[in-house]
Amino acid sequence: MTMTETRQFQSEIPAETAAAFDSARAEAFGERLVDLFNSGALSLMLSIGHRTGLFDTMAGMDAATSEAIAAKAGLDERYVREWLGAMTVGGIVEHDPEGATYRLPAEHAAIMTRSSDENFAIYGQFIGVLGSVEDDIVDCFRNGGGVPYERYRRFHEVMAEDSGQTVLPALEGHILPLVPGLSDRLAQGIRVLDAGCGRGKALNLMARLFPNSRFVGYDLSEEAIAYARNEARESGNANVTFEARDLSDFDRTAEPEAFDLVTTFDAVHDQKEPLALLKGIHRTLKPDGVYLAQDIRGHSHVHLNTDHPLGPLLYTVSCMHCMTVSLAQGGEGLGAMWGEEKALDYLAAAGFAETEVRTLEHDIQNNYYICRP
C-alpha cells in the first residue's frame, strides 16, 4: 500500500477512527502483504521445481541456458524458461543476461535437492495440496462439516517425503534412543504397533533394522496401506503387516496387552476420536510396554504460539487438513495445534501414569512423548 493509497483509505474512515489511525503501520502492513503474496507464489514454484526434478538437474550443471536445462531435465523449454524467471526474481536462481544463462548456487542446492539431508523444496508442496481443497474448505466455513481424506490426492505422498527427512534419518540414532534400552529390546524381539502409520515408512524401516521383532501398522487410508504393503514386499519385510482400519473405536476393540511398543508419528491430532485412540493404545500395551508419540510442538493457547517459527504454516495445515478430515468423519476436529498442554491432559485421561516430553535438536516441528502405563 502506497502512502497515497493509505491517505485515501484514511480519508474514507470515520473521523474518530482516523484520529487514531497509524499511517506508517498501515504502509508497513501493506508491504508485508506484498511480500506474503510473493512468498506464496514462490512456494508453488518451489513445489514445481522439486516435483519436476529441476533443482536436482540444475545442481549438477554449470551456468546454462533454459534450452540446455530443459533438455537435460526432459521438460518443455517454454515452461522451464518462465519458471526460471520466477526463480530469478525470487532470488533462488542466478541469471547472467549477457549469456542468457541460469545457475543454482551450491549454497541453495544444498537445501533444495534430493541429494541433500534437508530438502526444503519438499515443503512447498503443501501449499498446492492444500490449495486444491480451498473451495471445499470455504464451503465448510459456511456450512460446517469437513473435507474427507480422499479429496487430498497427494497428501500421503507429500507426508511420506516429509517423514523421509524428519523421521527416517533420525529414527535409529535419535528417536528410538529417547527410550532407554528400547533399541536392545527391538533387537532381541518384541511386538510393535504403529497407529496411523500412513505409507508405513517408519514401520518398514524398523522392520528392516530389527528382523527379530514383529510389526503391525494400522491406517484409515486404503491407498496408504496398499503403498506400505507394496514397500514391505519389495524390501522383503516378512515381519511386518499392514491393515486398513478405523481407529475411532480403538478404546473398545484394541487387543488387550498385545504390544511391547506402540508408536504414532504426527497421527493423533487428526483422528476422528483422538482420546479413543489413546485409550486403545493404553489398553493394547503390555504392563511393561511403552508408547512413543511424535506430535506437533506447540501450545494449546494461541497467544503462546505467536513466536512459533512455523506457526502460520501449522495453523493453516491444521485448518485445511488435520482438523477438517476429523470433522468430515463427525469427529472432534482436534487439529494439529492442540498443543502440549492438551496432549498431556489427553494422555492422562487415557490412563497413562507417566509421560515425559522430549525434543530433538534437528526437529523444530515436533515433541516426543514417552508414555508408560
TrEMBL record:
Pfam families listed in its UniProt record: Methyltransf_31, WHD_Rv2258c
The keyword Transferase is annotated on this UniProt entry: yes
Domain Methyltransferase: 188-297
GO function terms (MF aspect): methyltransferase activity
Domain S-adenosylmethionine-dependent methyltransferase Rv2258c-like winged HTH: 40-114
Keyword Zinc: no
Gene Ontology biological-process annotations: methylation
SUPFAM superfamilies linked: S-adenosyl-L-methionine-dependent methyltransferases, Winged helix' DNA-binding domain
Keywords: Methyltransferase, Transferase
Gene3D superfamilies linked: Vaccinia Virus protein VP39, Winged helix-like DNA-binding domain superfamily/Winged helix DNA-binding domain
Entry-linked InterPro entries: Methyltranfer_dom, SAM-binding_MTase, SAM-dependent_MTases_sf, WH-like_DNA-bd_sf, WH_DNA-bd_sf, WHD_Rv2258c
Protein's name according to its UniProt entry: Class I SAM-dependent methyltransferase
Organism listed in the record: Kaustia mangrovi
